Amino acid sequence: MALMTPSQSTICKGCWQHMRMPIPIRGPLALPLRMMGVKISRMNPNLCNICETMFTRVKRRKQIVVTSTVLFADVRGYTALSQEAASSEMLDILHGFTDECAEAVWARDGIVNKFIGDAMLAIFNFPIMRDDHVEQAVRAAQDIQRRWLRRSGQASAGAVPSPGLGIGIHTGTASIGEIGTAYKDFTIIGPMVNMASRIQAAAAAGDILVSSAVYAQVPHLFSGPHAAEFALKGIERPTTLHRMIA
Amino acid sequence: MALMTPSQSTICKGCWQHMRMPIPIRGPLALPLRMMGVKISRMNPNLCNICETMFTRVKRRKQIVVTSTVLFADVRGYTALSQEAASSEMLDILHGFTDECAEAVWARDGIVNKFIGDAMLAIFNFPIMRDDHVEQAVRAAQDIQRRWLRRSGQASAGAVPSPGLGIGIHTGTASIGEIGTAYKDFTIIGPMVNMASRIQAAAAAGDILVSSAVYAQVPHLFSGPHAAEFALKGIERPTTLHRMIA
Q1: In sequence order, what are the residues at sequence separation of 6 or more whose Cβ sits closer than 8 angstroms to the Cβ of residue B89?
Q2: B135 — phi, psi (to 5°)?
Q3: A175 touching B (Cβ < 8 Å)
Q4: What is the pLDDT along chain A (246 residues), one digit of tens a residue?
Q5: I need a surface site. Which of A29, A47, B134, B194 has the fewest CB within 10 A?
Q6: Closest chain B residue to A173 measured between Cα atoms?
Q7: B171 and B192, same domain (yes or no)
């Protein structure tokens, strides 16, 4: 118990919320369940591994359609930097990026779905549902940028200059579930997810760029001029996005 | 036993090769180990989940440098197609892509490291080591294209036209291991991996595009004119690549 941080739960938050089942994931009561294969989810340490995907199984469908908020974060200029920096320095950057992102997302009840090279895909409102999932995602993005700035400030003087992060957020309906039968890949797909990825690609280092759908739910988090038109890859018309400077 | 396909092993191929330890992963002898948490790896059904990452632990380092071959495969025009096709049809495409890729990679002793939207990252020569890992990767790519063509030929007449796949392959040294401490992401990183991804991006639908380093080890698999110069994103000079038409 002494090892727990305040954000760590002793029961699975997802199982409790959806079924009112207190599934122990930490402490002595968790041991018998662990023997049966119930473990802490790697996507969020307050969930169990069963609950990650069980809601799709309960519904006897491979995929379910949910309203959620998707956050993509990416290390800007990672490939270019990797041409000049030592591989140990590149590794340090990736280690730091992975840890800071994961902790910020978990603190806001999101799940880290996957890391893709120098980018992260996080989902909010599944399986832990929150009415304020859009705000939680934006606050997680602020946390990620803050953590990254602090970490960069702590880097030793001789180290390579730390690259900035670009973050993009969109919200809407998408399909969540397992793709494939031989290899099962649990992920979120749909046009909303592609759009979130495009928004992230347009974000400059240090920026959080969000769609109008996100902005409409959290106008109080923005100040000063923030709306601008962007030409996003694969989208014909200019898209209005809202920019938050970390 | 009746459920096993010829390619499925009863012991973990990785543990056997590296330590001469017969770790049962199928059949009655596998049960006690399963109780202890040893399971079939989802990256390759002939490996155990311990062995996926144990070689990095045995060496007491987060990362090890290995010579390997990396294969990226991608559904060409997936995002564009998703604008016009029904989401159920897009799901069918992703399900088929995931399964065909995984089975082709496993049959050649590679591991499926991850799926990223409509793309796959596969690694050959880790943890199952083979002197002919370059050839195995190219043959896996041929299998993937063949399987995809067969599957597309079987699609019903009214379905959307099936998109083609682009595949890129490169070989060299890279760093394999777990990134992060809070969230652990097992993956392969380094300039070789970035280059493989760039090569894949240059491959047209139906093509297998490989680097000169790959070609040099498997010239017998190519026929007719195959070399061409490509301008790859982020690479200043033109790059000579070798094209195999499925």
Answers
A1: B159, B160
A2: -65, -40
A3: yes
A4: 334 444 688 999 988 888 888 889 998 888 888 877 788 888 999 988 887 776 666 556 677 889 999 999 999 988 778 777 888 888 889 999 999 999 999 999 999 999 988 899 999 999 899 999 999 999 999 999 999 999 888 765 556 667 899 999 999 999 998 888 888 888 999 889 999 999 999 999 999 999 999 999 999 999 888 999 999 887 778 999 999 976
A5: A29
A6: B87
A7: yes
Do A54 and A70 fall within a single domain?
no
Look up the domain containing A26 and give its range.
13-58
The β-bridge partners of B111 are B123
Which residue of B90, B183, B192 to mutate against A (max A Cβ within 10 Å)? B183
Most A CBs within 10 A among B76, B175, B179, B199, hence the mutation to make, goes to: B179
Task: Name the residue facing A87 among B114, B175, B234 (closest C-beta).
Answer: B175
CATH of the domain at A179: 3.30.70.1230
Candidates A100, A183, A187, A197: best to mutate against B (most CBs of B within 10 A) is A183
Q: How far is A3 from chain B (nearest CA, A)?
A: 14
Asked whether residue B90 falls in the same domain as residue B126, the answer is: yes
Distances (CA, A) of B81 to A143, A144, B204: 36, 33, 16
Contact B141, B171 (CB under 8 A): no
| B189 in contact with chain A, both atoms CB, cutoff 8 A | yes
Which residues make Cβ contacts (< 8 Å) with residue A8, sequence separation at least 6? A26, A45, A46
**Residue B192 and residue B220 in one domain:** yes
Q: Is residue B46 part of a domain?
A: yes
Are A179 and B115 in contact (CB < 8 Å)?
yes
Total domains present in chain B: 2
In a domain, residue A212? The reply is yes
Note whether B195 and B109 are same-domain residues: yes
ipTM: 0.81
Tokens of B149: 């063509």
Does a structural domain hold residue B47?
yes
User: In whole angstroms, what is the distance from residue B5 CA to residue B10 CA?
Assistant: 11
